[in-house]
């Protein structure tokens, strides 16, 4: 349970990666966030309910999509 002020975003919120880091293991390539998400070095994520978010580096932009447009879409 988050005791931070202001509270960290929940695992299901859009800005869940902004939660504080509780444990960092760079030698193993992952960090545990306050909201229960395990964040990997390749930007993949493991959710507390067992769900998985595939790596989504900003550099992983589909071929043929202008970088500016892709960034705009991901923000919206
Ligand atoms: Zn917190």
Q: Any overview of this molecule?
A:
This protein has 76 residues and is an alpha+beta fold. The chain has one domain. The chain contains one helix and five strands, in the order E-E-E-E-E-H. A five-stranded antiparallel sheet has the order 1-2-3-4-5, with no helix packed on it. A hairpin with a 5-residue loop joins strand 4 (45-46) and strand 5 (52-53). The mean pLDDT is 85.
List the helices and strands and how they pair.
Blueprint: E1 21-25, E2 30-33, E3 38-40, E4 45-46, E5 52-53, H1 67-75
Bound molecules: zinc ion.
Zinc ion binds next to loops.
The gist of it:
This protein has one helix at 67-75, and strands at 21-25, 30-33, 38-40, 45-46, 52-53.
Please describe the structure with a list of short key phrases separated by commas or semicolons.
alpha+beta; 1 helix; 5 strands; binds zinc ion
Q: What integer value in Å does the Rg equal?
A: 14 Å
- Helix fraction by DSSP (H/I, runs of at least 4): 10-25%
Spatial strand arrangement across the major sheet: 1-2-3-4-5
Shape type: globular
- Total count of strands: 5
Mean pLDDT: 85
Q: What low-confidence regions span 5 or more consecutive residues with pLDDT below 50? A: none
**Spatial separation of the terminal alpha carbons:** 29 Å
> Number of helix segments?
1
The domain tally reads: 1
Percent in strands? 15-25%
């Amino acid at each position: 349970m988050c005791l931070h002020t202001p509270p960290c975003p929940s695992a299901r919120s859009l800005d869940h990666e902004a939660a504080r880091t509780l444990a960092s293991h760079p030698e193993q390539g992952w960090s545990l966030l306050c909201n229960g998400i395990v964040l990997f070095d390749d930007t993949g994520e493991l959710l507390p309910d067992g769900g998985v978010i595939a790596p989504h580096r900003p550099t992983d932009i589909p071929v043929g999509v202008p970088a500016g447009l892709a960034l705009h879409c991901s923000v919206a």
